[in-house]
Design a protein that fits this description.
2 strands; globular; 405 residues; two-stranded antiparallel sheet; mainly alpha
Length: 405
Amino acid sequence: MELLTTNNVWMMICTALVFFMHTGFAFLEIGLTRQKNTINILFKNIFIITVGLLLYYMIGFNLMYPGEFNGYLGSIVPGITPPENGMTPEYASGGYTWWTDFLFQGMFAATAATIVSGAVAERMKIGPFMIFTIIYVGLVYPIAGSWKWGGGFLHELGFYDFAGSTLVHSVGGWAALVAVWLLGARIGKFKNGKTQAIPGHNIPLATAGVLILWLGWFGFNGGSVLSADPELTSLTLVTTCLAAAAGGVVAALVSFIKYKNLDLTMFLNGILGGLVGITAGADVMTPESAIIIGAVAGALIVFAVSFIDAVKLDDPVGAIAVHLICGIWGTLAVGLFSTNPEHTFLIQLTGVACYALLCIVSSFLIFYTLKKTVGIRVSEKEELEGLDAHEHGMDAYPDFRLNEH
């Protein structure tokens, strides 16, 4: 029982750290966008975590961890009922209690929609985004999670995703890609075939957001050990931090070589890319492999951001480059660098393809239906004057109003 208590306390600390990541996401998103849309972004982030937890309680947890099921789709069982051994060392091999399990997994559930929030910032109607969040977090994410973490067909196949490079980050990233494509670019982003920079209004806040996210990753990856195992937890935190550091340094370096300037936003997104990249295999990597994975992720960020601009997709915060591209890379990297010989590149690629199909189809159906019925984009006037005023009737900085158009 003493071991259960120790494990459980560690898991609750990790749950709190993952919860704190939503502060990091909020800071990063508002920092990299214009001040006239600050309330809108904050409202979406608060909506995601509150409604996400309720949805995960009502249907998500049981749908994601259905026990005996066909490996593809579980049944919707409302609410949660703890098993008889839910508070004993028999549950989860003594790693934690059933209640802690629910709360820890619930914190992950909302993250996928948060990724989409940043990508569609500054031009999407709040109502349709809320509808998307309810469907995607309530149904799509738990089904995706059940395929691997719920013991589904990809788990049986041998697919490996330790803490969610694919199951969390790519699931959000694919939806972000579809949403950005259907929404179109912000007014003024592309002029005469050239990309125009639309600077964020508070880079110090964005920097704080990234550092908070890095801190939160101690819980995101450290908690995914699912116990307080000293050796495995310590290794996981080391690989996580080394990948983040390598990602940041390489992104800054490659950006300097490519653009001849020291771009802080590239530095920041490189750190996040390294974190996303190592998340799939943080527990099965050597420190040297973690540095390589993070370094590749950092380089990918720079070229991915450039490519996304080149194909005229507008992602204000770099969510697609960070969460989708680096999520795919990190998942495939397990097949290349894992210390477990059973992890193969082909199986990892199969898992990536399966999640791509599920997420692209489901997010397209949701967004396209919303676009053709209620519409998903605000009017030109609303976009130019800001979503805060038109969607919320509020100003984030009433004493420091700027004329932003």
